[in-house]
């Protein structure tokens, strides 16, 4: 009798193969790297051959791994289709999407909700994160469509929209400490952070970081409450904010862009991309 493959091990194998490393795969599966490594070892023992070539940073499939990857996706898909069929909710496709926090929390959700209602057999899996992280996952094949913020022309895309930046302070803050400007910033590698430092250094204006936050909503709130100033997209300006001008010593920042990147793997992802594009045109 042939060996029976474990579905949990197959799902782990598919995720590791698609992401190329245990770190990203563990984030997708809400597990630990050591657990996933042990599961892959168990699967390799069942198959009787190695499934991955373990490089310094990335994992690549062996010839046996390539064969198993093709069959594993079909096995899992058939399993899902069976259970969805008997419950009357057959899912024929899953689309994996990635958006920055401000888009995932309201800018595109009405379009996603309408798409889900019109396509009950398509499942959406949405991930929110920093633009650079989302683009890395997209390159690794872990996401089918992403919307990110990037420098003009940084990554080629058929869908791009301008994203002007502005300096913001509290609407009630009429005085800025001339000795050192308090800055509100995203964490390391966050957008706009280094631009702020560079522009102020060019103007020879002393500064210090007073508040660091990975959430746009948190940064908006900190600005409104008068904790400091920040460089953000113009569309992120709230009524409690005031724009700081060049006359006040805040140089204009280079315009960024919003870009949508799509793996054109199916008609459904193309339809969703066009709908999202129409939504973004209205920003």
TrEMBL record:
| Keywords of this entry | DNA-binding, Transcription, Transcription regulation
The record places domain HTH lysR-type at: 5-62
Checking Pfam families in the record gives: HTH_1 (PF00126), LysR_substrate (PF03466)
Tagged with keyword DNA-binding: yes
What would you give as a GO molecular function for this chain, any one? DNA-binding transcription factor activity
Family, similarity comment: Belongs to the LysR transcriptional regulatory family.
Name listed for the protein in its UniProt record: LysR family transcriptional regulator
- Which source organism does the UniProt entry give? Providencia stuartii (strain MRSN 2154)
């Amino acid at each position: 009798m042939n060996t029976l493959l474990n579905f949990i091990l197959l799902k782990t194998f598919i995720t590791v193969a698609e992401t190329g490393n245990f770190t990203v795969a563990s984030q997708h599966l809400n597990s630990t790297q050591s657990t996933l490594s042990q599961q892959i070892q168990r699967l390799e023992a069942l198959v009787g051959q190695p499934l991955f070539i373990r490089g310094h940073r990335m994992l690549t499939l062996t010839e046996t791994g390539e064969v198993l990857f093709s069959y594993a996706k079909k096995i899992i898909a058939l399993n899902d289709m069976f259970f969805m069929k008997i419950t009357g909710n057959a899912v024929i496709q899953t689309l994996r999407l990635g958006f920055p926090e401000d888009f995932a929390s309201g800018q595109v959700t009405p379009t996603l909700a309408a798409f889900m209602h019109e396509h009950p057999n398509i499942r959406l899996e949405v991930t929110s994160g920093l633009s650079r992280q989302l683009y890395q996952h997209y390159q690794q094949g872990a996401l089918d469509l992403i919307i990110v913020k990037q420098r003009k022309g940084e990554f080629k895309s058929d869908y791009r929209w301008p994203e002007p930046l502005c300096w913001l302070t509290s609407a009630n803050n009429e005085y800025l400490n001339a000795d050192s400007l308090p800055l509100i910033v995203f964490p390391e590698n966050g957008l706009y952070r280094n631009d702020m430092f560079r522009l102020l250094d060019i103007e020879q204006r002393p500064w210090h970081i007073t508040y660091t936050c990975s959430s746009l909503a948190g940064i908006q709130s900190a600005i409104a409450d008068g904790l400091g100033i920040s460089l953000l997209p113009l569309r992120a300006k709230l009524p409690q904010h005031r724009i700081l001008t060049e006359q006040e010593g805040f140089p204009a920042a280079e315009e960024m862009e919003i870009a949508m990147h799509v793996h054109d793997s199916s008609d459904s992802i193309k339809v969703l991309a066009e709908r999202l594009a129409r939504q973004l045109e209205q920003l």
